[in-house]
Amino acid sequence: MTLALRTLNTAEPGFRAAFTGLLDRAQGLDAKVESVVRDVIGAVRIRGDAALLDYTARFDRWTPASAAALEIPQNLLAQAAQKIPADQRTALEQAAARVRRYHDRQKIDSWSYTEADGTLLGQQVTALDRVGLYVPGGKAAYPSSVLMNAIPAKVAGVPELIMVVPTPDGQLNDLVLAAAHIAGVDRAFRIGGAQAVAALAFGTDSVPKVDKIVGPGNIYVATAKRMVFGQVDIDMIAGPSEIVVVCDGQTDAAWVAMDLFSQAEHDEDAQSILISPDFLFLAKVKAEMERLLQDIPRAAIIRASLEGRGALIAVRDLDEAAALVNEIAPEHLELSIEEPLDLAKKIRHSGAIFLGRYTAEALGDYCAGPNHVLPTSGTARFSSPLGVYDFQKRTSLIQCSPQGASDLGKIAAVLAHGEGLTAHARSAEYRIKK
After folding, report:
1. Residue 331 bears catalytic tag
2. DSSP structure class, residue 348
């Protein structure tokens, strides 16, 4: 069956309007979803564990005997790590080691310096006390998400990491539990949806209140995270997955087609875009897509994603490709070209850049080392991948010597009087040497 995938050309009239339409990421808030989430959060905030038990029975189709049954004992996490097939356990351990090694380099240390008059200035870096990790458990299980969210938190020094994961029909996923054990999750609860976010944000008798909530989820989870922000911190509001591939036409067309599929298979709203100066190559990739779609499990989702939000874009040259990439600000960017580092220097906005023909985006999802939690929906213009720095906070240090207090007091007093804040000025002036 022919794939109805749009093809754009920067040299043709009408390109700009079509390109703008392609990037329309309007994700208007769903009033019905907002109303449901607001009710759920309110119920959990007021009724605590009782609300969690009700929502678990309603949404996850199993009835816990008590609130205590919502917690997954640590020994079950360890048992799951032994129960899963040896190749899966080895892969999890190898991926975890690579993710930990990469994030170890992100740690920020406290620092200070002393000025000539003895005044000390600096910055004290401390980890958050407690972090909540949401792990999806509905349509699919994501052990990789556990590793990517938990490991940087632990590298940062977070002493307590609380995982929540829905267990539809009461079924635990051993791969997710094993990943939690390997990543160092401290406590885990069998709850999901907006009710899990609310429990983490406000705390219940069973679920401890956290300082920050990280991890992906469906629209109800994302809406709940948006609503509790301010009560707690959150990582980001993630939109549909995205990939842009820039190719010079020399990479195997089947490789590129499958790389585009790798994001399209997430869901119908995912976006996959190929940009190339070689128009014939675009046609080759489309032909490979049509061939490969005949024998892949999630073909219907991939087709819907590609036909709804995908595109093949012909450009004049790679410089023009880089300019388009910076407008898109994609979550994932593959530079499938001969000299990717040169072109990468021209990219200002992208969550992650995969360099060269052999670097499939899927490697970054699982085991390369850098975090796969990336800014979506164009937010790479001002946001960064999840990292150790997201689990640390910085406190300023100021210690004035007598001379420093006198010198700084004169400056502060002038500015405070200028702002009409007399108590500020006098507070500084008291310490000025007579």
Report:
1. yes
2. -
For the full predicted model, state whether its pTM sits above 0.85. yes
Task: Tell me the pLDDT tens digit for each residue of 167-179.
Answer: 999 999 999 999 9
The two most distant CA atoms of the chain are separated, in Å, by 89
pLDDT in tens, 319-351: 999 999 999 999 999 999 999 999 999 999 999
Cα–Cα separations (whole angstroms), residue 395 to 100, 110, 121, 130, 155: 25, 9, 11, 18, 19
Q: Is the dihedral of CA 182, 185, 191, 194 positive or negative?
A: negative
* Rounded Cα–Cα distance for residues 393 and 125 (Å): 6
Nearest to 138 by CA among 33, 236, 61: 61
Between the CA of residue 365 and those of 118, 263, 305, 348, 431, what are the distances in Å? 49, 10, 19, 21, 57
User: Which pair of tokens denotes residue 323?
Assistant: 């300019």
In this structure, the number of other CB atoms found within 10 A of the CB of residue 46 comes to 10
Catalytic-labelled residue, pool 103, 181, 332, 349 = 332
E strand or H helix at 304:
helix 299-309
pLDDT in tens, 255-288: 999 999 999 999 999 999 999 999 999 999 999 9
The answer to whether residue 27 scores a pLDDT higher than 60 is no
Q: What are 351's two structure tokens? A: 């969550």
Q: Out of 331, 349, 361, 372, pick the active-site residue.
A: 331
- Domains along the chain? 31-234 (3.40.50.1980), 239-381 (3.40.50.1980), 400-429 (no CATH)
Is the pLDDT at 26 greater than 80? The verdict is: no
Q: How many CB atoms lie within 10 A of CB 332?
A: 26
Q: What are the structure tokens assigned to 179, written together?
A: 């990943």
Query: Is residue 115 classed as helix, strand or coil in its secondary structure?
Result: coil
